[in-house]
Write a structure and sequence with these properties.
CATH class of the largest domain: Alpha Beta
Helix content: 25-40%
Domain DHHA1: 248-330
Domain DDH: 21-172
Strand content: 15-25%
Protein name: Bifunctional oligoribonuclease/PAP phosphatase NrnA
Bound molecules: guanosine-5'-monophosphate, manganese (II) ion
Largest sheet: 6 strands, parallel
Radius of gyration: 20 Å
Pfam families: DHH (PF01368), DHHA1 (PF02272)
CATH architecture of the largest domain: Alpha-Beta Complex
CATH superfamily of the largest domain: inorganic pyrophosphatase (n-terminal core)
Number of helices: 13
GO molecular function: nucleic acid binding
Structural class: alpha/beta
Number of domains: 2
Distance between the termini: 27 Å
CATH topology of the largest domain: inorganic pyrophosphatase (n-terminal core)
Strand order of the largest sheet: 3-2-1-4-5-6
Order of helices and strands: HEHEEHEHEEHHHHHEEHEEHEEHH
Length: 342
């Protein structure tokens, strides 16, 4: 780890050594890394004898529901009372895979109110100062890869078991798009070590990537055929999906996961955007190649952020206005898009 000093781990070790109950919170709309990192850490701490629950603000995709874990996941939106009780009864709160309180959605205020020790383990740039201990390492592919090294630094490696290793592998697998981006020597070293715990990587690949409903595949086909607009002059592409279209294809959480990546497979496209009409806002996702800063684009225009090549945000304009706004922004970025080296 580059930025995190050794002292922080002895302090965190002392806190966890004296703790009984632990809450782990991933970001809103949790993805494979958020759930994988949370469950991998949670299972390891549970194996050490701590009482752990993951509290997610909202539900997570079906393709992440195959984990066998001793750590329960409480969905705040479904059971507010149980989530609140466990959180405020906990001795420690660990936030994983997000860099600002607001990324926890309706749990953000409760994170603020939690008065005992708070720890952040994350790999996004620009971490906010909302926890007592912040382990923020942006060179990591995923929070799951980082969690594995944090477990090592804490001297807890002996508590990793198959279930924890499965969860951590899943986090790395999903955040790297099946080892296609953001990988490093440490990523593959971590994966090689996780294989020591008897995980079935074929089974996990299949559960994560080959587990879609027919509706989801048809929605994807529809989006690529009918909804994708390519702007070769800006090396960009956009897909926009309305609420009505999602309903037509019996949308379930997670169904649009990965759609934003597809336009980047087009020769010479370096920037891709996906806009999805939600109840009260429009959800935005951005992906880029090379040095085009998707996170800067998102923070400047769509109240969001994320990584250089993968960012998200939102728009309070109407769906049509949002798309128009995006289209109008492209000429402003023409120079930067043209210069992007891939
Ligand atoms: P996605 O497009 O998958 O929702 O998000 C891509 C990346 O950007 C993820 O790493 C996610 O954590 C981050 N991200 C998504 N939405 C937001 C947002 O509203 N604010 C910030 N700061 N990051 C976001
Ligand atoms: Mn992540």
């Amino acid at each position: 780890m580059k930025n995190t000093g050794k002292e922080i781990f002895s302090a965190i070790g002392e806190v966890l050594g004296n703790a009984g109950k632990v809450s782990i919170i991933p970001h809103e709309n949790p993805d494979g890394d958020a759930i994988g990192a949370a469950l991998g850490l949670g299972q390891t701490l549970a194996n050490k004898g701590l009482e752990v629950k993951v509290i997610s603000v909202n539900d997570y995709p079906d393709f992440l529901k195959w984990f066998s874990s001793d750590v329960p996941i409480t969905i705040y939106e479904k059971d507010k009372k149980a989530a609140k009780e466990w959180l405020f009864d906990s001795d420690v709160l660990i936030c994983v895979d997000f860099n600002e309180e607001k990324r926890a959605g309706h749990l953000a205020k409760m994170i603020g109110r939690f008065s005992k020790t708070k720890i952040l383990i994350d790999h996004h740039p620009y971490p906010g100062d909302f926890c007592h201990y912040t382990v923020s390492e942006t060179q990591y592919s995923s929070s799951a890869e980082l969690v594995y090294d944090v477990i090592g630094q804490l001297g807890y490696t002996e508590y990793i078991n198959t279930q924890a290793a499965e969860a951590l592998f899943t986090g790395i697998l999903t955040d790297t798009g099946g080892f296609s981006h953001n990988t490093s020597q440490n990523t593959f070293k971590t994966v090689a070590e996780l294989l020591n715990y008897g995980i079935d990587t074929d089974k996990i690949q299949s559960a994560v990537f080959h587990n879609f409903s027919a509706d989801r595949m048809q929605l994807m086909g529809y989006c690529l055929y009918e909804k994708m607009k390519v702007f070769p002059e800006y090396r960009a592409a956009v897909i926009c999906i309305t609420k009505e279209e999602l309903e037509r294809f019996n949308f379930k959480p997670g169904d649009t996961e990965g759609f934003v990546n597809y336009p980047l497979s087009i020769n010479d496209i370096v920037f891709s955007a996906l806009f999805i009409e939600k109840e009260n806002y429009v959800k935005a996702s951005f992906r880029s190649k090379g040095n085009f800063p998707a996170n800067k684009f998102s923070s400047e225009h769509f109240n969001g952020g994320g990584h250089l090549n993968a960012a998200g945000g939102e728009s309070m304009l109407t769906f049509e206005e949002t798309i128009e706004r995006f289209t109008q922004l492209l000429p402003e970025y023409k120079h930067l898009l043209e210069e992007t080296v891939i």
